[in-house]
Structure formats: structure tokens, C-alpha cells
User: Fold this.
Amino acid sequence: MAKAPESLKLPIDNHTDKSLDRDCTTLSRHVLQQLQSFSPDAQDLSALMNRIALAGKLIARHLSRAGLMEGVLGFTGDVNVQGESVKKMDVYANDVFISVFKQSGLVCRLASEEMDDPYYIPENCPVGRYTLLYDPIDGSSNTDTNLSLGSIFAIRQQEGDDADGLATDLLTNGRKQIAAGYILYGPSTMLVYTIGKGVHSFTLDPSLGEFILTEENIRIPDNGSVYSVNEGNFWQWEESIREYVRYVHRTEGYSARYSGAMVSDIHRILVQGGVFLYPGTIQKPEGKLRLLYESAPLAFLIEQAGGRATTGLVDILDVVPKKLHQRTPLIIGSKESVAKVESFIQNGH
Assistant:
């Protein structure tokens, strides 16, 4: 028998093997691996994350062509439930999530900061046991200037039959979330998620059309030099927050980073450490960020990475909302960095 030519021998390369294994780890596969189960609940959660990924792909594609298409950029002329001007991209992204989850068979309700009331999918409700809460486009003021944007999401299991259609079972603390995360639309499109078993990141590979595992079990540094806050609001804050900002101004080693898209700023802090602040103001102490759609999902994720999220007085995940669109102040990031801000709020130094 002829001996195989040297050039055709294909020895197993451990590095290649690991690389291929990573390249084959898609989001839906990873969820099942995390749960170590193929039970109906595990398969449901894997399918839900797959639908979120599909929404992210559609939005990323739309954003990549935004400057080339008519009717994508600018304002619609409408105002949402929070009294904010609505951008066309907000509407498109909101519609994407609705369309994607109509086909899931698993989600009965969707609640978004762009809609006054939850959106019900009657054909899903007899069997759909889940609710998606989301901010379809975070940082929409960046849309027309080609800067980073994001989407924020959380999944909750429906409690009771919601016979009155008021979704009052959603008015519970953030520890009831079963999954949460964000999609970052930047130089690459990334999806970062948690199901209560650590924080994991995926990057969209356009050639495959799949989110591929980038990093598992991300841990946020205990401290960091970055502080991220809109200092244009300086004179609207309580004195304790102003004093903290004065402290970082006169302390060597701090770096200010603020993009106008919270997902982008939170992702930087997740990787590098530091703190993100969106405090309330003297006139609006409740702050600007929505608890159910923004603060609680990000708090769940950051805590899973070893960080903290607080209003300055109470952990975000312990806040019980009184209404669907409730706002809250937010201080989130590395444990020690958050504790430093808390010390100014609670003790004045």
C-alpha cells in the first residue's frame, strides 16, 4: 500500500481544535451548555435568546445601510410615553422585536419604553409563558452621527394569567429576571448576556450570520479609572454628586468617558472597570432611566460579572416599581468604584 504523501498528513492541532470549537459555539448552543440540560425550559430559553439575536442582526443590518437609505434617519415627529421625541430608528427597532417575537410562540407580552402599554400576542398567550422587556435603541441621539448604539433586553416568566391585561406581575424586583443583556452596535456587533450563570459575550460573524462566542465568564475589575457621566447636568444634581465629580477632578488617575449611548459606556466599564452614573436631578430626583427596560437588566448583568448597581441608597435589583415606566437613578460598575460614589451620597465624602 502506498504511503500517504507528507503534505497530506493532517495531525490534530490542539490550537486549531480549540479555535474551531469556539467558532462552533453559537448563542443557542451556549445557553444549553450553561443550563446543562435539554429540558423544555432550557430549550425555551435557548430559542428566546436566538430570537433576540435575530432582532440584533436585523437592526445591525439596517444601521449599516442607514446613510444610504431614505427614511431611516431623523425624527418621526411623534413623542413617546416619556415625552421624548421619537427617532425613526426607535420605531424600526421596536417593530423588529415585535415581528421577531410574534413568530416565537413563546412570548405572550412585550413591554418597551416606546409603547404606552404592553404589546400582547394573542396567538402566543395560551402557551407563551414569557415576557420580553426591552429598550429597542439605546442612545438614539447617536443615530444621525454614526456613533455607537445599543439594545437592552430582559426576559421574565409570566406570573398568573394576567386576565385584566395590566401586566401587574411585572411590577416586581429585578431578581425575578431570568435573562438579561444588551446588543452593542459598534465597529462589530456584540451580544452580551446572562441567565444567572455568569456573563458571556458573542460577536456577530457576518460571513456566518451567527453570533459566535468571544469570551466566557467575564469579570469586571473591582475598581477602575473610568467614570462615565454627563457633566453637562452638573448644576442640576444634588450637592453630593457634584462633590463626587469634584473629587475625581482633583484626584490623579481618573479618566472621563461618556458617549451618549449607555450600552457603549457600560460595555467599556464591564471590560476595563470603573463607574457609570446617571443620577437624578434636584427637579427630577427619580432620574431619567427606566427601571424595567434599562436599569434592572444592566444591574442583573453587572452583578453577575461581580459588580454592583444601586440608586445610591438601594440596590437596583431590590427596587420594586409602582408603574411600568418607572424611572430610577443609576450608579453601576466596579464594586469599589460604586462604593466610592455611595460614600458621597450617604456620608458626603
Notes: Residues 4-10, 72-81 have pLDDT under 50 and may be disordered. Residues 181 and 298 are 7 Å apart (CA to CA). DSSP finds eight helices and 17 strands in the chain.
